[in-house]
Design goal:
The complex is a heterodimer of chains A (166) and B (510). Chain A is mostly helical. Chain A is built from eight helices and no strands. In chain A, helix 1 packs antiparallel against helix 3. The radius of gyration of chain A is 25 Å and the shape is flat. Chain B has 510 residues and is mainly α. In chain B, 76% of the residues lie in helices and 1% in strands. In chain B, helix 5 packs parallel to helix 14 and helix 10 packs parallel to helix 13. Chain B is globular and about 65 Å long. Classes of the chains: A mainly alpha (166), B mainly alpha (510). At the A-B interface, helix 1, helix 3, helix 5, helix 6 and helix 7 of A face helix 7, strand 2, helix 8, helix 18 and helix 19 of B.
């Protein structure tokens, strides 16, 4: 049978995810408070979201139940064939760590560590080059942003603790 | 109008703005040359830098980046067969074979001159069309704007590739839904779930950076294109590049193709959602069909016309895509959608009023776009051998740097680390959607148009006392609505029919 199975079909998986999101969105619409002053109006804060949710659900259902064609509906497994998951996952973890640790490490140290680890994850194995590039870039950006553009950058609670600032 | 042009000239030729065009063209060329990073990512990366700028300077810088990125995309398409932008895919068809045949310099020169001429003819047409359209659209009311925004959202879906119409519509709706997060026009919080950081909604910069720059960089990693051994290399020294000059005979031979492709490209570019990619493919196809039998066989093997046509068309289309943005305030492409978002963040409302209220921005952007073309030709072309060295920078170092610039770009606007976390999450969702073959440009377009669409809908309903009759009782609104319906239904119907046919054929073949 050439008709691609429901689960392993990019369009169907995508439309299923959009359907789930749209249903959650629809549910959340009922939590939007309707201002009593606007309640009698023809258009409220719920009007457009309601229309969007219904349209999105309808289009997701059409995609979910339309006939699948092998040629145009590539399977998920073949789409992700040969993907390098490990470095991608590690980079995502690094980005999350950078975001969550920004207040602790501050801009300079956080950026230096993020770049250093990022280079290593992607296969850069020359320590001196990595340290020079990541250190140089973080310092250069810090000088540019704080001294040239006059922006405030988070110095980090770790730094403040070390130098005795509160 | 003359006064406006003079004000625009004065603004565009100020030393700071001349520097902006120059900087934009260079930065754009560098970024556009990197496979995976196109004009959208390039402009998105520039937005945080331009936040403190005067709106005219910011837009001039972005216009320069736009042209530079388009040019950079063509350069990598020709040199290493890796188009940095989708609009440069057709350029690679004949451009790369020419480079392989030892004519890289000639190919780059043809691309640069064609782009310049496409941009020149596009700019002339822009000068002619924009004021007329802007004056005409001054009579538009909220109802017409609502219909126009609906048209903008559907048009990008209608012009999506085969089998992508429904997906593009879903993405537009998703973008519109994301736009409803935060405070609504009446001050009520929607979909914030008590998270204070969401009260102002998701910033368009966060969404554009996450869906384009961040997602592209992560996809490059996923595909394993970052390994040191696979780093893109131009492998070009100045000696290997060959001559960058074009002969008179050759120029004469290419002139008709350039003329035709410019006009075709400009008008395709005006259509919301069509853009440079479709224009370049159409121009390539047109030239191939017009070529005599012997020349036709040379297409795909290094035919100069096959290179000049898409290059001219994609630059003319880039210029054309500014028409709906500047006259109606409706972006015709993901790139102009980002520019619209940037203008809004400067407190400038694009559309017919821009022409009246801010002539210095309106005209200086148009003039700077043309100056961008001149700078690309005069400075970038001779510097290509040096700029191409960027392709030799190891990708394992470039990718984390791109990720860093994307993250810090968003942080520098809000100074809120919550945005960084949200950006990573949106970036992952964008990667999933890209893997599932969902186009992301309609999502961004829907997101940017969402707020304005709701505002105009509310205003129209208030004016019409809650009646939806404005959709069919105002002739202009009705006309736009009918066009909108046609742009949705025609591709939907043909997609449904072809899918049904293919499905039946498949089953019978079994």
């Amino acid at each position: 049978m050439t008709v691609v199975s429901i689960v392993d079909n990019r369009t169907r998986v995508g439309s299923f995810l959009i359907l789930v999101f749209s249903l959650c969105y629809l549910r959340a619409i009922f939590d939007i408070p309707v201002d009593t002053a606007w309640a009698e109006e023809h258009v409220t804060s719920r009007t457009l979201p309601m229309g969007l949710a219904i349209a999105s659900i309808a289009f997701a259902l059409i995609q979910l139940f339309q006939p699948a064609v092998k040629g145009s509906d590539m399977s998920v497994s073949s789409a992700v064939e040969g993907f390098h998951w490990r470095p991608m996952v590690l980079l995502v973890v690094l980005m999350l760590a950078y975001a969550l640790g920004f207040h602790v490490l501050g801009f300079v140290l956080g950026t230096f560590l993020f770049l250093l680890a990022g280079f290593w994850v992607l296969g850069e194995r020359r320590p001196l080059v990595s340290i020079l590039v990541s250190g140089g870039l973080s310092l250069f950006m810090w000088i540019m942003l704080t001294r040239v553009f006059g922006l405030f950058l988070e110095s980090g609670s770790l730094y403040r603790h070390l130098v005795g600032l509160r | 109008m003359l006064e406006g042009i003079l004000t625009g000239l004065d603004t565009a030729f100020s030393p700071i703005n001349l520097g902006m065009v120059l900087l934009g063209c260079f930065a754009g060329t560098f970024i556009g040359m990197l496979p995976g990073l196109g004009p959208v990512s390039a402009i998105a990366l520039m937005i945080p830098i331009t936040y403190g700028f005067d709106p005219a300077s910011g837009m001039i810088l972005m216009a320069g980046v736009y042209y530079g990125a388009v040019f950079g995309g063509s350069t990598s398409a020709i040199l290493i067969n890796a188009p940095g932008v989708s609009g440069a895919v057709a350029t690679a068809f004949d451009g790369h074979p020419m480079a392989r045949n030892g004519q890289a310099g000639r190919a780059l020169a043809i691309a640069a001159y064609s782009s310049f001429l496409g941009g020149t003819i596009g700019a002339i047409l822009l000068f002619a069309f924009v004021p007329v359209l802007a004056r005409l659209s001054l009579s538009f009311q909220s109802a017409d704007y609502f219909a126009l925004m609906l048209f903008g959202c559907t048009a990008i879906a209608a012009f999506s590739g085969k089998g992508q119409v429904l997906k593009a519509i879903s993405m537009t709706l998703l973008g519109l839904m994301l736009a409803t997060i935060g405070q609504d026009p009446s001050g009520i919080q929607r979909f914030t779930f008590g998270v204070v950081d969401l009260y102002d909604g998701i910033s368009f910069l966060l969404l554009s950076m996450a869906t384009f720059a961040l997602a592209e960089a992560l996809l490059v990693v996923l595909r394993g294109e970052t390994a040191a051994s696979e780093a893109g290399s131009s492998g070009l020294s100045k000696d290997k590049l060959g001559s960058l000059r074009l002969g008179r005979e050759e120029a004469k031979d290419l002139a008709p193709a350039v003329g035709r492709s410019s006009i075709l490209g400009f008008f395709v570019g005006i259509l919301p959602g069509a853009g440079a990619t479709i224009a370049s493919f159409l121009a390539y196809g047109m030239e191939r069909n017009l070529a005599p039998g012997e020349q036709k066989a040379q297409f795909g093997k290094g035919n100069a016309r096959g290179l000049a046509a898409p290059e001219t068309a994609n630059n003319a289309a880039s210029t054309g895509s500014f028409v709906p943005l500047l006259t109606l305030g409706i972006p015709g492409s993901a790139t102009t959608a980002i520019m619209l978002g940037a203008l809004l963040s400067y407190g400038v409302q694009p559309g017919p009023r821009l022409y009246v209220d801010n002539p210095e921005i309106f005209w200086s952007v148009i003039i700077s776009m043309y100056m961008g073309n001149i700078i690309l030709l005069l400075l970038n072309l001779p510097l290509i051998p040096y700029i191409a060295k960027l392709l030799d920078v190891p990708r394992q170092m470039l990718t984390p740097i791109i990720l860093f610039f994307s993250l810090i770009g968003v942080y520098l606007v809000s100074f809120n680390s919550f945005d960084l976390t949200l950006m990573v999450i949106v970036g992952i969702v964008a990667v999933v959607l890209r893997v599932l073959d969902y186009p992301l440009a309609p999502l961004l377009l829907g997101f940017i148009l969402g707020g304005m669409m709701e505002e105009n809908l509310r205003r129209a309903l208030l004016i019409w006392d809650g009646s939806w009759a404005f959709l069919w009782q105002r002739p202009l609104t009705l006309t736009i609505m009918l066009i909108t319906l046609a742009t949705v239904l025609i591709p939907l119907w043909s997609a449904f029919r072809s899918r049904r046919r293919e499905s039946i054929t498949d089953v019978f073949a079994e």
